[in-house]
Write a structure and sequence with these properties.
Chain A is an alpha+beta fold and 137 residues long. Chain A is built from four helices and five strands; from the N terminus they run E-H-H-E-E-H-H-E-E. Chain C has one domain: Transcription Regulator spoIIAA, CATH 3.30.750.24. The chains are: A alpha+beta (137), B alpha/beta (387), C alpha/beta (127).
Chain lengths: 137, 387, 127
């Protein structure tokens, strides 16, 4: 369905990795000519998800891909961790719910900021979040 | 001409007999299972002209799943059916040789009668009441029709006659697309463009009519082929027509989005943004972006969002408005919504949308007055102000 | 450890964030600012985020915390110079930065702080 045009992979282990990662995502977004607002939305969503990964699973692996569907180009980010997993996805997707001491905006906020959002989680095995932001979406 | 026909007949007759021989060898020397259902259908369809029930049953059976195929019947029955079919075929070929020539040569016979078809087609079009002589002269029409017919007759052969997707039709499709786009631009209605193509069908069928007087069933099958062919062409026509329109709509949508979000500096430090048309999420983003960027550039501290041009406010639109106001406040500016018509106010309340955190005014004028008080400005009567 | 410089200007504290903050830096800023408020008795804190290209919920929380803690210590917080794209994103994220004032630029921010503090003083005098 999607054609992957370009791919990169980054391991996130410590909080200092967040800023370089955001810059990397930004580079990709700029390369495909994403508008400033959409860039900001994408990077913010990425930042939320990377922080989640660091906080709940002590890091994980992320991939950045430039994908295309028909005429539209976009960025796909995959965040895979081997953390404790999420027991109740519906609850985790609710605004203001947090098991840590945060605002609870991470997952639902990232979903609102991206064009497409998918989360898979198995308790004890880990969580994989995939988001897509289309260039004009 | 007569020789040619005869020659053709003989060659086809021989080729058909040869196929029959294959059939015979299949039955008598080969294995009856070696028949594919397709070959059975093609053979029996010839014989079915004579309306034999059993043959029809045979055709149906050949289409059924394997368990019901003829091979499950007694072998003698098999032989009998195929033998009968073979006899029918031979008889048929002997009785209507010229029809077979026609059947195999629809394309060629049409190609030969190009002039006749063109004449009939143009006549058909001229007869039509919806002919737009104001948009196109008869000479132009004839030229256009001839070009299309030329390409059509060059493209068709017996195999592709009802499959306009094949590569042979590319140039034809191109011509048709060109014609329908020009017609769309010239102001022809879809109906007029459609009847242009459909009148070709009549012309083609009329021509075939003369060739197939002897055999109505063969005429029917050729007619169906022609109808299919022209229908496919008509589909191409409409597709292009609609595609052309869609492009126009898309361009206009983009233009509207661009021109419909002007940010006006009504006063030093006061921006106004009249929104006209429905607010969807993509448009809200454009509105928000334009507004916020303009706020930064002009250093304004008050923005007035005028929604008198928004036809309806539902909960989604209201949400977009609230988002715009919140974003403006995050930037450090105040946002006023004006132009709320009574019916919109009513819907908002009925929908249970909470706008209490937002400053709302009925008119742009009262919003401006409110903005002046916020900025501690005063408008005096003697000064003939912009109000 | 890197630190974000905090400038003192009369009754006000000025912070200009020029780089994308990683978590430790942001948390340090929070602690430093609160301590500075208490040490100097500042009445207003002005945070310039015009160089920040993104603000996520973590940064939002830090800013919110600074605002709330300063408020308890009797100082107002103004966030100035937010980029339009950042504002749109924050709204979409669901973060409204409650408890802090916002202004377009440093000049407007200072004006706003002065007004707020003036009102406060008026009220105190009336009391």
């Amino acid at each position: 369905m999607y054609i992957v045009l370009n791919k990169d992979r980054m391991v996130i282990e410590k909080e200092q990795d967040v800023v370089p990662y955001r810059n990397r995502v930004k580079e990709f977004a700029v390369k495909i000519g994403m508008s400033l607002v959409n860039q900001t939305k994408l990077i913010t969503a990425a930042s939320e998800l990377v922080r989640n990964m660091l906080k709940y699973a002590n890091g994980g692996v992320t991939t950045i891909e430039v994908i295309s569907k028909g005429r539209e180009n976009g960025i796909r980010l995959v965040f895979a961790d081997k953390g404790p997993g999420i027991a109740d996805l519906n609850l985790a997707m609710k605004d203001g719910f947090s098991t840590g001491k945060s605002l609870g905006l991470g997952l639902p906020g990232a979903k609102r900021l991206s064009s497409e959002f998918d989360i898979q989680s198995t308790v004890g095995k880990g969580t994989t979040v995939t988001i897509i932001k289309w260039k004009n979406g | 001409m007569a020789f040619k026909k005869g020659h053709l007949f003989i060659s086809i007759f021989v080729s058909r007999l040869r196929r029959g021989k294959d059939l015979l060898s299949g039955i008598f020397w080969g294995h009856p299972y070696s028949f594919t259902s397709a070959s059975v259908v093609s053979l029996t369809s010839t014989a079915s002209f004579h309306g034999t029930f059993k043959v029809v049953i045979l055709v149906i059976k050949s289409l059924l799943p394997p368990a019901f195929r003829i091979e499950n019947r007694g072998e003698i029955n098999n032989y009998l059916y195929f033998y009968l079919v073979y006899i029918y075929r031979v008889l048929y070929v002997l009785k209507y040789p010229y029809i077979i020539i026609m059947k195999f040569e629809i394309a060629k016979s049409l190609q030969k009668k190009k002039k006749q078809i063109l004449e009939a087609w143009v006549q058909n079009q001229l007869k039509d009441e919806s002919l737009r002589e104001d948009l196109m002269s008869n000479d132009e029409l004839r030229k256009e029709s001839e070009e299309l017919l030329d390409s059509l007759l060059q493209s068709i052969n017996n195999k592709n006659i009802s499959d306009t997707d094949s590569a042979e039709f590319d140039s034809l499709n191109e011509i048709i697309s060109g014609i329908s786009i020009t017609r769309a631009r010239q102001g022809f209605s879809p109906k007029e463009t459609g009847s242009y193509i459909f009148s070709l069908r009549e012309a083609l069928i009329e021509t075939l009519h003369k060739d197939f007087k002897g055999d109505p069933i063969e005429l029917l099958s050729s007619t169906i082929q022609i109808v299919k062919l022209v229908d496919n062409l008509a589909v191409v026509t409409f597709e292009t027509f609609i595609k052309g329109r869609e492009e126009v709509i898309l361009r206009q949508t983009n233009e509207i989005t661009e021109i419909s979000t002007p940010v006006i500096r009504v006063w030093d430090g006061i921006l106004a943004l009249p929104i006209i048309g429905t607010l969807d999420s993509s448009r809200t983003q454009v509105v928000m972006e334009n507004l916020l960027v303009e706020i930064v550039e002009s250093g304004s501290s008050i923005a007035i969002l005028d929604i008198s041009g928004v036809p309806a406010v539902d909960s989604l639109v209201a949400q977009h408005l609230i988002k715009t106001v919140s974003a403006t406040r995050l930037m450090g500016a105040e946002c006023i919504i004006s132009g709320i018509r009574p019916e919109i106010a009513q819907t908002v309340v009925h929908l249970g949308i909470d706008l209490s955190n937002i400053v709302t005014k009925a008119t742009l004028a009262s919003a401006l007055r409110y903005a002046f008080t916020l900025l501690k400005l005063e408008v005096k009567k003697t000064t003939k102000s912009e109000l | 450890m890197d630190r974000i410089p905090i400038l003192r200007m009369g009754n006000y504290l000025l912070v200009t964030i020029q780089v994308d903050l990683y978590d430790r830096l942001a948390q340090n800023l929070e602690t430093d600012l609160v301590q500075m408020v208490s040490k100097t008795g500042a009445r207003g804190v002005l945070i310039d985020i015009s160089a920040l290209s993104i603000v996520d919920s973590f940064m939002g929380r830090i800013i919110g915390n600074i605002g709330s803690v300063s408020k308890i210590m009797d100082a107002e917080t103004v966030v100035v110079g937010m980029q339009p794209a950042v504002a749109i994103t924050l709204i979409e994220l669901g973060l409204e930065l409650k408890g802090v004032y916002t202004a377009l630029n440093v000049e407007r921010g200072m004006q706003l702080l002065k007004e707020k503090i003036l009102i406060d003083e008026d009220e105190t005098e009336e009391d």
